[in-house]
Amino acid sequence: MPLDQKGVTVRPIPQLDGEPGFAEIYFDNVEVDASCMIGDEGQGWEIAMATAGFERV
Question: Where are the domains of the chain?
C-alpha cells in the first residue's frame, strides 16, 4: 500500500551506525484497497506471524 496516503505514519528507527533500514509504521483509520490486501480480511496477524520468522534468520 502507498505509504504516503492519509493515516499512514512512518518513523525511521535510528541505527547505531547511522544507516537507514528499519522503521515504525503506524496506521490510523487507513482504508485499504482490496488490491493491497494479502490474504483474507481478518488474517493479518496470522500472516504477519507466519512470515516474521524469515526476518529472524
Answer: 8-55
